[in-house]
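Below: protein 1.
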Amino acid sequence: VQLQASGGGLVQAGGSLRLSCAASGRTFTGYIMAWFRQAPGRAREFVSAISWSGRRTSYADTVKGRFGISRDNAENTVYLQMNSLKPEDTAVYYCAAREGNIHYTAIDKYPYWGQGTQVTVSS
């Protein structure tokens, strides 16, 4: 099972980025896909999650209204559209996956992780 995150980069405050996470190695039917992030010196934190159907999404309060999560099950890929970026969004962003239908925010609930992609927002 492999998750490959991409799309990070350097952007000015107020800009946008779209992250992608491609899954391979098995089918992710019925799996929740999620994004977490970790800033320097801080714990990894939940950002967003999406159900298998795509009909149910959840967001951390800090990104609600600015970020949008979506998925393409035919491509086994999940996306995170990040708009109105702020310097405090600077972090390494990780995608994660778990079986089931509960949008847990705790990192220990997700057995599958990608390698992370760096997002840097300059002021």
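Below: protein 2.
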Amino acid sequence: QVQLVESGGGLVQAGGSLRLSCAASGRTFSRVAIAWFRQPPGKEREFVAAVLRSGGSTYYADSVKGRFTILRDYAKNTVYLEMNSLKPEDTAVYYCALEGSHYFTTAPSDYDYWGQGTQVTVSS
């Protein structure tokens, strides 16, 4: 049984930093990618960042490129999202998810395991 548990959200001022964690358990090693998504208030869920199983390549949404970093600790089976220079528009519930297809995509519908989410609020 696959389980994803996020932690590390909270309230931070604009310009600040947070580090989110996603602890994975179960058969996760065979998945193409593990990713972070977010859902701002009143908006649809959107892709943030992903790390691929093959080669460890990383991908980022343009809106977070240069500010966020996704890291994977294989020994701990944990994925981190380091967020710097946070902006009020980064306010959202952040989710980690496992890719369910055979190739990397950024569409939420292609991810079949999700964590419960962690709230990130950035004040101006």
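The two ends are 41 Å apart (CA to CA).
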